[in-house]
Amino acid sequence: MKQNSIFRKYFLPGFVFQSVVIAGGYGTGRELIEYFLQYGPLAGLLGMFLVTTVIWSLVLAVTFEFSRKFKAFDYRTFFKKLLGPFWPFFEVLYLLMLFLVLAVIGSAAGVILKDNFGLPYMLGVCLMLAAVGFLTFKGRKLIENFLSSWSILLYLTYGAFFVITFLKFGPEIQQNLESSFIKHQWVLGGFKYALYNMGIIPAVFFCLTHIQTRKEAVSAGLMGGLIGILPGFLFYMAVLGHYPEILPEAVPALFVLKQINVPLFMILFQIVLFGTLIETGTGFIHAVNERIQSSLQARGKNLPRWMRPVIASMLILISIGISSFGLINLIAKGYGSISWGFFAVFIIPLLTLGIYKIIKSKSQS
User: Fold this and answer.
1) Is residue 249 in a domain?
2) In a domain, 359, yes or no
């Protein structure tokens, strides 16, 4: 029981963060190309760890402590405490990001089944929709268990992916790492990647109820940044053997899987990747359900259980139309544009006003 409590306090938030980040952050691999690898192999690693990981860990630590201090476990409550009457600005950005990410994962779900199993594109979208609807219907406990368990499976799979590619393309990976090609925009790339992924933090709020002390909150946040980036690092290293020809690929993960040519592992990877799409969709939509529940509770009402999968279905169906723009355009243009919005209405207020309110609250208690 004690070990389970330690896991839920210190590690669960990081695994949930990683679960929600992955499909919109590096599940297809396209995001890692766009924000890291295009600046050069070594530059990408610098951006990943010196910029993205540091920002993630810092922001998560402050966010978790603010959430704990003010008992804000849904984004409506959190941003009302942080921004006061201006909190709807975050909700607008969050909904835009939600539709964008759902469009990306919907498109990826269709591509995975179509390109690898010869199944209709819409079947992938419908299967993802059904799984997300089921999880949101069953509620918080099952969602926590699914997100954390699938994350551990993902770690094992990405670790195996790295080992297989290193055994086959080790010299090419080493040669590319030793390349002197570096674009100086790697700092900006890591900064923007960190920022747009910060928009998914509300999907983690529901599991922060297990945290009781500042030490637990800060420790969980600092570890969360590292937990979130490590699978992306393993994937990044795996694709380095195919630089620069991999740069224009819409789904780099599929490209590399075809190159290593291990049929059984390809099937396993596709199953795990499909599960990550379900993880991200569930996390995003569960945050919306929790926000609606919080609003209803303020009026003495509750969100009917049957409404949760209905809301999930509506949000995903709306996103299907957006997915027609294609993965590369959605990631390159949509994510890049929205990053600065989160910087203005979340990161800056959190690291200034948020820290001030935490300190002030402590002095008054």
Assistant:
1) yes
2) no
Q: What is the pLDDT of residues 59-90, one digit of tens each?
A: 999 999 999 999 999 999 999 999 999 999 99
Cα–Cα distance, 285 to 304 (Å, whole number): 15
Domain that holds residue 162: 2-351
Residue 189 lies in a domain: yes
Are the C-beta atoms of residues 20 and 284 closer than 8 Å to each other?
A: yes
Question: Could you read off the pLDDT of 133-182 as tens digits, one per residue?
Answer: 888 888 888 898 898 889 889 899 999 999 999 999 999 999 998 876 78
The pTM assigned to this predicted structure is 0.87
Contacts of residue 27, Cβ cutoff 8 Å, sequence gap at least 6: 105, 108, 253, 273, 276, 277, 280
Sequence-distant (6+) residues with CB within 8 A of 133 are 309, 312, 313
Number of domains, the chain: 1
Residue 281 is part of a domain; what is its CATH number?
A: 1.20.1740.10
